[in-house]
Here is the input.
Amino acid sequence: MRNGLASKSMLRWVALAATAAASFALAGCGGGHEHAHDHDHSQGHEGGHGGHAHHAPHGGALGMLGNHAFQIEVLPNREEGRIDLYVLDGDAERFVRIEALELEARATAGQREWALTFRAMENEATGETLGSTSHFTVQVEELAGLAEFELSFDRLEMLGQVFEDVRIPYPHGSH
Here is the structure.
């Protein structure tokens, strides 16, 4: 009988330890979201979302859509006089192809305002086509040469999800 009690006690202890270990393993970054990281938690976090930061693959500014549903990277190309947009997953690690052929936006800098139509871009190297691409661009030399501006989108639809009143300040982003 004593062996039976010891076994039950040991099983309870193992179950409790396993539950605690699973809880710690599933605890995220502190931002209420789950995803893989490539940074050291002991060094703290950067950025404006609970201290959590993602890095734009092309070095542009990131704008988060929803609670890490998607990211939009804004990247001026001063030499070619254009602004490029890239649609990325919520962690800004993978490109996300969407069906849109155009994305309508407004840009503001000081008292100036521009109405913009970003057009979908094809890319033979990645197999991206019109109607299945993550890259959009607009030719606007004056805006591409500015150090600071803000893009705003009244409505964006990404894979069936709708985002309204999206604002992305360049160069700081809205993460």
